[in-house]
Please model this.
Amino acid sequence: MVDTTTSTDSTPSETEIPDYPFQRDLRCPLAPAPKVREVRASAPLSRVRIWNGSTPWLITRHAGQRALLTDERVSDDDRIPGFPYVNAHRAAIAPHTPRLITNTDAPEHTRLRRMVNAPFLVKRIEAMRPTVQRIVDGLIDDMLAGPNPADLLTAFALAVPSLVIAELLGVPYKDHEFFQENSNKVLDGALTAEQARQASMALAGYLAELLKAKMASPGKDVLSEMGERVTNGEMTFEEAVSMGVAMLIAGHETTATMISLGTLALLQHPEQLAELRESEDPKFIANAAEELLRYLTIVQTGVRRVAKADIEFDGQLIREGEGMLFELHAANWDEEAFPGADKLDLHRPARTHQAFGYGPHQCLGQSLARLELQVVYGTLYRRIPTLRLAAPIEQLAFDHTGTTYGVRCLPVTW
Ligand code: HEM
Model:
């Protein structure tokens, strides 16, 4: 519960914890950092020291995150001093970044989100199931026809979200290769920042041209819908292009990571994988996707906010201008919300997880991500029943610094 009264005590009584983000235990690569459990058990709110020396609040409990993420004094505006940026690069670009759904509060956020909400509603996304199934089947055919062993990430996982989003935006088939290649470059950690920037510019330029073409001759896709809103004066041309790029980037690495890391988690739990492979029950497959989202909680930078006013919360005073870090893994492994949280259990009711965040900024693309994961988890292991790791888990390299926690390469054989 969030108390609306303001405390008179100006000194936080908590002790500050250095070295955030916390280190994971490399022997248990799928579990959150052990320190997370310790901090969550000791207090609902703690202060942590981050890269720039500031000490934002760390919120670890499931219920506490829900209360604060729906409090209108909690802001997503990254121009407010005190916002806890992920790194120096993000801090440097924040003042120059256009105002998007990802960095605005109501009422601006509500206006922008309304512009793009309709295509992501469950019913419209569900209508895409046959298309997503066709894309997934085609990519599995390609992988089976290619080299064995293969890297599941590049041979399959990265291609699923980029082909699906291309479909949703209305990218013509002839341009798919350009689209996919540049989407991959934006996320390829092996390339330089300049190469990634060029790929992102190429995509923005491409989407701007495509938007113009859709405005002249609309189709039944998201870009055409946004084009109509531009024509009606509801959103600017630049906002529509930025939204297209944001959808592409936000949904690409995240979904690909859930496919590769989800597969790794299932290969580590062969009995549950066998049950999933043999199941014909769409509800069980959908729940398995929720449980994998909860268990893996791949967005490792969490959700970040700043207080717009003083907030008294659980006996502590969060002052105006103080940063807040919502550690999603901590909430999703909170025993009070998910008893036996450290076990993967595909039968557990997991839908209340916070892997997609919570509150007004909760993931716009969650229905789409769910659909993609349900189709992949319900198809891949059935089509390739002998799928297994082609290298010991100890030899896999995990990404500890990016927005999402995942494997850099997942060698598989069949
Ligand atoms: C498994 C896949 C995904 C995960 C784990 C994920 C996770 C998240 C999280 C945690 C947030 C909340 C950020 C915050 O509150 O600050 C978010 C927001 C967002 N996501 Fe996703 N996401 C996924 C897939 C997608 C897809 C497929 C799309 C679009 C096609 C997408 C588009 C967005 C957008 C536009 C926002 C910003 C919403 C807003 O600020 O109002 N995401 N996502």
Notes: The CA atoms of residues 21 and 50 lie 7 Å apart. The longest strand covers residues 303-307. The chain has 16 helices and twelve strands.
